[in-house]
């Protein structure tokens, strides 16, 4: 199962051409199991301008699996991720990224993200990042073909 970070969803919804958003598009069309944590949903919805957009996006994302709720153990482990990275010279900029990394570590999710904080975390913890196949780079974006 793949946990998709906010950075990739934003590119996807905005039609931004990135390798990660192209891979997400492939995962959706191939019905690959994806998980959306509540924190990611919150971040996505915070960036939308209208309630109608927020409702439409929330409804669309509700079709994917929801990550299990956080517990105290996750909070402690996320703080540990931050401290251990900082102690190794890799300061993580986002508390939420530490929590998302912890969810991936705890539940065995692969992570699809663009955020450099996850690169730093993966240097210290066994965070599994999605290896995007080269052929995804060659797939056309359906939006770019519409005139």
Explain what the structure shows.
It is globular, with a radius of gyration of 16 Å. The chain contains nine helices and four strands, in the order E-H-H-E-H-H-E-H-H-E-H-H-H. Helix content is 59%, strand content 7%. The model is unreliable at 141-147 (pLDDT under 50). The protein is α/β, with parallel strands linked by helices and 147 residues long. It has a four-stranded parallel β-sheet with strand order 3-2-1-4. It has a single domain, classed as Rossmann fold, CATH 3.40.50.
Brief summary:
By secondary structure, the chain is α/β, with parallel strands linked by helices. The chain contains nine helices and four strands, in the order E-H-H-E-H-H-E-H-H-E-H-H-H. 59% of the residues lie in helices and 7% in strands.
Please identify, by name, the CATH architecture. 3-Layer(aba) Sandwich
CATH superfamily: 5'-nuclease
**How many E-type strands?**
4
Indicate the low-confidence ranges by residue numbers: 141-147
Instruction: Tell me the distance between the termini.
Output: 35 Å
Task: Count structural domains.
Answer: 1
State the shape: globular
The CATH class, by name, is Alpha Beta
Overall pLDDT confidence = 91
Beta fraction of the residues?
5-15%
């Amino acid at each position: 199962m793949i946990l998709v970070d906010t950075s990739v969803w934003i590119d996807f919804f905005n039609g931004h051409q990135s390798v990660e958003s192209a891979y997400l598009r492939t995962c959706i069309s191939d019905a690959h199991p994806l998980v959306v944590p509540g924190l990611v949903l919150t971040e996505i919805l915070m960036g939308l301008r209208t309630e109608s957009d927020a409702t439409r996006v929330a409804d669309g994302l509700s079709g994917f699996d929801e990550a299990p709720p956080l517990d105290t153990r996750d909070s402690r482990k996320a703080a540990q991720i931050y401290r251990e990275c900082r102690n190794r010279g890799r300061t993580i900029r986002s508390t939420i990224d530490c929590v998302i990394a912890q969810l991936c570590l705890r539940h065995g999710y692969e992570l699809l993200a663009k955020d450099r904080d996850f690169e730093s975390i993966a240097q210290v913890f066994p965070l599994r990042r999605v290896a995007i196949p080269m052929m995804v780079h060659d797939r056309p974006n359906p939006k770019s073909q519409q005139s």
